[in-house]
Records
---
Amino acid sequence: MITVNGAGVENAQGKTIAEYLAESGYDKKRVAVERNGGIVPKSSYDTTILQDGDSVEVVSFVGGG
């Protein structure tokens, strides 16, 4: 099981961060991702594979004017 933003997620294990973000409706251009306490560079989203026990935080940026 993987924890995303404090909630258990069972279907994310084995997916890349990019795959998880796309399936969950996130725009990867407008989020920051932290995995196990470290920021994941956007350039690594396509190659970083989520593993059992990972703790992930996804923060969305909201624009305003």
Note: The mean pLDDT is 94.
---
Amino acid sequence: MALETTVFTFKISVPFSEWAKGFDSPEVAAMHEDNSMKPLYRGVSKDDPESVVVIQQAEEGVAKAFFKANREAVEATGHIWDSTVITSYLAN
């Protein structure tokens, strides 16, 4: 399988610092590790404090499948599910 970089952009309903606390937690880090996912970057828009980007790297299809399988946990962080745009890139 190919290595894929997946970019998630979305809105949050809580302050970024609160959302980031959940994303950076040991529990979420363990989930990423268990699924062989490497978070490369996460940040908030300097122009819109409700807009967030997360960039993950994993084998093709893994990040998107992980995201879809964990909707309840994702939404619990303040992530607004229906605002999510997912774009994937391959380094062919």
Note: The CA atoms of residues 11 and 51 lie 5 Å apart.
---
Amino acid sequence: MSFVTESTARWIALVATLADLCVALPLWWLFDPQTSQMQFTEHVAWITSPPIYYSLGLDGISLPLVLMTVGIMPLCVLASWNAVTTRVQGFMAMVLVMETTMVGVFVALDFVLFYVFWEAMLIPMYLLIGVWGGANRLYAAIKFFLYTLAGSMLLLVAILVLYYYGGHTFDILALSQGTYPASLQTWIFLAFFAAFAVKVPMFPFHTWLPDAHVEAPTAGSVILASILLKMGAYGFLRFSLPMLPDASRMFTPVMVVLSIIAIIYGAYMALAQVDLKKLIAYSSVSHMGFVTLGLFVLNQQGIEGAVLQMVNHGITTGGLFLCVGIIYERTHSRLIADNVGLASPMPQYATLLVIFALSSLGLPGTNSFVGEFLVLVGTFSWSKIATAVASLGIILAATYLLWMVQRVVFGVPTPHHLPKLRDLNPRELATLVPLVLLIFWIGLYPNPLMSRMHQSVTNTIASMSREKVAPTAHPSAGVITPLLVDSEEPLEIQGGSR
């Protein structure tokens, strides 16, 4: 017998996620945008040998992602209030565990701690899909788990290599200041790529995503789209660019090509979908292509646009998946053909769905326009041809989203579904309206968000070009001291473990 009733479990999850949001929100005002240094840091010894620390901190790159995470999670709880009717206690527990691991990824400053959070999120996400998902949930859950686990194994190898070449430290900031032989950078970059590209997901490692989205419950789809996909892009920005600048430049043409393929391919696949969830899933592949494109043009506008687009995609695509979940509760179908003509019986729902769709296609005045514009500006300075081809993704996005809106909003309602098509209740409005407000706030006044990330992005770009030092563990005092090295020669490890 459970000691917590289903109703109590729902309220505990809602109160806990709202409490996290209340604790995190003041960071927005307390954050100093004039520095690129880590802020709100914690540093406690965890394991003595090898030296592993419970080390946390925020900068202008991780701050918006953390705030987006803690802001999305209460909405996931509200969206699941009536949708999840079996094993409610377990579902809400998994949602809370997911929040812990996702925030941990964005704030970890020790590589082992980062890896623990990175891997720990697989278990609750696997259970959310495999236990509370659709008819093919086990296939989708196992596919998600195996794809992401395979890449993560190579990530662990890369972390261990950096530990030995970087002076016997797992400190992410110290390793980011080091320099490594070009040949070593290449292999580490490929190992990072295996983990991060699957998580984004980049073409051609995207095939787990549509299955996972379709079979996951609404909250699972929102978590996947809004937060989990950003972790791969965050990994590229936090680790690949500053730690492996030579390899990042060498692989830039490949990354740009893969990103553009994802933009066009994802959009074309979305055009062919009859399932609303699959349409949005493939649109995610396309929109995340803009994120990786902005990251690897390696300039200020591109990277700032990519970070902004990570937040924008989380808001907009999360809203679209919430809309699909709301209509699925009424018609028990995700097919476009079964959900048509909603403007008359559900005017509030239809209005919000149109707003999310217009934001997703990058309408000026909405959040996505700002992010995609900056990415294309950054890409233009790298290659005009790449910019022209990537711009086709915006045209295709308008095509599949407006076509979807035309059918879902302005068609003729299915007669046997008409009695079920009641408009939004207060709980559903509370789930969607905050995202709509963020769409227009960022779209009309993005400067507060841009100013907070500017110094951190500038520091990341500078770290790719300045002369670096290799951190090495001091043999007696246990502190990190710099050792100048030549980037083409193997590093000499001094000292040993602390």
Note: The first helix runs from residue 6 to 24.
---
Amino acid sequence: MTHQTETTAAISANNPEGLLDDWMPRSELAGIIGVSADTLKRWETRRIGPPCIRIGRKVLYRRGAVRDWLLDQESHKTAGRRRAGR
């Protein structure tokens, strides 16, 4: 079992009613989007990354908020191209 899977399993075990089903730990998001957990931590500090919450030492990201953040990044890039092409 990988660390990411163990972390997700630990959260699920402590989450019998599915309260945190839409949330993932930093390590899981880092693996999904292909950046390090340290990069996500820096982005959080600079307020440029996806929104997150803290529960004690745990940092969690809501899947829907991450999708929205990714779409926003795409629209900013597209808008920048439109302005440059004028």
Note: The chain has one domain: 3-84.
